Amino acid sequence: MRMRVLFLFSLIMVLNANATSHPTRYSINLNQVENDQLKVFVHPSSHLKGDVLFRMPKIIPGTYSIYDFGRFVSNFKVTSKPGKLSKIEKIDVNTWKIATVENVLSLEYIVDDTWDTDDKSNWVFEPAGTNFEAGKNFVLNNHGIFGYFEGTTSQPIEIEVLRPANFYGSTGLQYIRNDEKDVYKITDYHTLVDSPIMYCEPDTTVLKIGNTSVLVSVFNDNKTVTSAFISNQIEPILQAIKVYLGGELPVDKYAFILYLPTSFISFGFGALEHNNSSMYFLPAFGGDYLGQMVKDVSAHEFFHIVTPLTIHSEEIHYFDYNNPTMSKHLWLYEGVTEYSAHLVQVRHGLITLDQFLQVIQDKISTAKNFNDTLPFTVMSEGCLTTYKNQYLNVYQKGALIGMCLDLTLLHLSNGAMDLSVLLKKLSNEYGHNKPFKDDELFTVMAQHSFPAVLNFLETYVSGNKPLPLLQTLLFAGIEFSEGGMQEITDFGINFEYAGYDEKINRFYIISDADLSAVGKSMGLRSGDVIQKVNGKELSMDTALEVYLDLYTNAKPSDPMEYEISRPLKKDKFKKLVLKGRVGTQSVPYDGGLSLVSAPTVAQRNILRAWTGN
Fold first, then answer.
1. In this structure, which of 304, 310, 317, 343 has its CB flanked by the most CB atoms within 10 Å?
2. Structure pTM?
3. What are the tens digits of pLDDT across the range 506-525?
């Protein structure tokens, strides 16, 4: 009888505990924004006890830079339960120690958006950052807003977002929408970080690609670019990717979230991938230029569903937001993804073979600016520190590694097996919830294909040998033509190397070495601050538009005019208008890629299997 009473008492205690237990809850109010700042309230999980650490991420998956999101947090406060006491202590830029957390009623802090912050010491790539424009737009990359209690990143959380009644939250997440409030019940912090949200008046289009619902959401401040236009660019790519991946897309729902400014904060255009969405920051002008950019970038980001979101190592699967260990295989995550984004377009007739070969040629040329003897696995592991200046080579040589591996597989299999088939085999062996071990990947790839693949990967990816570009391209009947000199349009200034003065929002000439013969004949000098180009004001807000107009429309012998401010002594400037004419200059170029004149049957077969041509 006593045992029965104890059992019933224990059962009642458990039921009462469950009735009062709750996950960590966060709340923000988009109606209350001052100076591009949001107030965040945090109610700790009822399961938390003792002293705990509350952290903002130092780095997040998909990026390869240290951002220290804690530096955007201020006024961190703790409110204790009645009659209780809890203290807070700042440990470092990203970490706060909360004493006796069970005594905490709530935490609160102010968070600055990253797009407009005064802290310019470490620029945050816009698609990974936050934007708080009161009554207009909110880009919520959640790692920049919501911190986590150490040891709880796999536990459920809830988010409450109070918002203007006319705002809509575009995201890959499911949520409960009320008249002026949205509630997100999320399985874990990793999912929250993986799911950006954009709030604004809705401009959305939904596409149905096979069994997948694709949301396209656009914010454009002057409404010149719409979700309908973007959807028209994206849909053919998604249809092609569906075929490339075997007939269906690997997700039920996906969201393309695009912020398209007509004026812009920086030159950091691009996107960031997620499991069920991708976040874009792209210029809202340029016509066909914007259209092709959207195609290229959206294809790249969507292909990340394969690598690293499906096929990935333990370093990514068990990602540590504050003490990260980097994987050796950026060539796979970024390089193969970049390569596939262009290959799928030529294979399905969205670009021509000549256009595809030009993309490859550009990557060959650009890769020469990086250290070709540095093993790619070594660079990947050290991309945050020692080899940070080599990271961008993932989009050049990394893509070329993917191409060479693809052609090698086609050659070894007589056209029967390509890289996409190998990736499908790896997806079947691993997947979202099963990572591979970094040091075992090459062996596993060889086991699923050919022994020679292991030698290729060890020689050219973990080894220091230059890629066998000539040999592998010849498998498909592609050869290099000789280089030489070419004539390019000369505007007087190499804009790529112009300096930028943030205080006056103007560009200036750093060195006379950046002036061409035309620029020198016009009288331009180092130190000159450029006010206008051909009558158009040149600032950070207008730069891309001015450059596109020049590169698209200016022809040799056309009039060229610079309005400049020339520095004199004691912070004084002299305004000058310098006139001349657009010229040409001869510059060296690398050999191009072209079809061999008399391809063999084997070469024709591999070219067809490779590109569809």
1. 343
2. 0.78
3. 888 888 877 888 889 999 99
